Amino acid sequence: MLTIGDMYSNDVIAKTLVTIDMALNSEYWQGLPFLVSQGVCNSDANGKLSTWQNNIIQALKLYPGFKGLTPPADSKLAMPLTWPYGTYALPKPTSGCPKGWVEGTRTQLQSSSHSAKPAHPPGGAKGELLIHMEIKEFR
After folding, report:
1. Which residues contact 131 (CB under 8 A, 6 or more apart)?
2. Which end of the chain has fewer CB atoms < 10 Å from its terminal CB, N or C?
């Protein structure tokens, strides 16, 4: 199973998965002059990138037949987003809490020195701000 992040850190917002031939796309080889100057690549390497890329594409297309296999049908790759371990509270949407989340509230006292107008939302006493949340614990 493919996942992004782990139980302690899940900072990745989006990921793009490409085929191996994209590694030979010239946009990824901006440092090629340095590699040539160091003797890692030949001076004509930049001109050969597209040829190498096409060769890899052709090899990938022919490989299943070479191995006597049926090529798989293309399917959309999906990676589940996993939350790191912990308890999370998000502002409650007007449509209600999603499945698996529970409703909670947070009361914040308002000081007149911090606000030109003290908040008086429904359910909160004078000088209090009542915030409706949805809460879930991930283990």
Report:
1. 91, 105, 106, 107, 108
2. N
Q: Are 41 and 32 in contact (CB under 8 A)?
A: yes
Pairwise CA distance, residues 110 & 120, whole Å? 10
Given a contact cutoff of 8 angstroms between Cβ atoms, the answer to whether 133 and 105 are in contact is: yes
CA distance 117 to 97: 29
pLDDT in tens, the chain (139 residues): 556 666 666 665 667 778 888 888 888 888 889 999 999 999 998 889 989 999 999 998 899 899 999 877 877 777 777 777 888 888 888 888 888 889 888 888 776 655 445 444 455 556 677 788 888 888 7
The tokens describing 21, both together, are: 């031939």
Residue 116: phi, psi to the nearest 5? Answer: -65, -35
The tally of CA atoms less than 13 A away on the side-chain side of residue 120 is 5
> pTM score, two decimals?
0.42
